[in-house]
UniProtKB/TrEMBL annotation:
Domain Beta-lactamase-related: 63-207
Protein name: Beta-lactamase-related domain-containing protein
InterPro entries: Beta-lactam-related (IPR001466), Beta-lactam/transpept-like (IPR012338), Diverse_Enzym_Activities (IPR050789)
Any Pfam family matching the protein: Beta-lactamase
Amino acid sequence: MQGNSTNVDDFFSISSSSTQDEFWPSNSSEWTEVAPEEQGLNSIKISEMFEYIENLSFFALDSVIIVRNGYLITEEYLHNNEIYRNIDNPKSYYGNTTIHYQASVTKSLMSILIGIALQEGFLTNLNQKLYEFYADIWESGFIYGEQKKNITIEQLLTMNSGLIADWHALYPSDAETKVTTNSIKFALEDVPLGFTPGAEGEFTYSND
């Protein structure tokens, strides 16, 4: 794609403001796949996108899914940045049933779930504090325990809770074990604060 326009409008074959039929499936088995042009996308640009991905050298993509107006446009799984189904002798790799490490995608999923919880009345507002939900397991010996009690849902979502980001460096020997065993208790008991909750922001894994 070198030399080609990367303007997002190039991906649309018609005006993005045009009325499109919408179909949102109720479960994963009902997704309907259609040609890109049926939903106003440019199939040539999508092909060029995959050509560009194949030439990437600084990181690898394992899958690409494009959904528009509830319709599946593209679903491809990749191996070494090459489309899996185009490989002559592909190794067993990621597919549509493979469990994949999500990393910070969890942040977006958590925000969506919090929004649903608010809409359904399970939460009152984003100012509710961490302590309200974990009072039954809270112990006096938790590091920075009194300050952590004041951490709000909003602070966790916006990454200004104060929970320190690099807990791997602090607990190189047992961090992974503790997180796997009980990630909530690990965050409450062991993860220190880098600053007062709400005072500043810092990208961190601890808020997930």
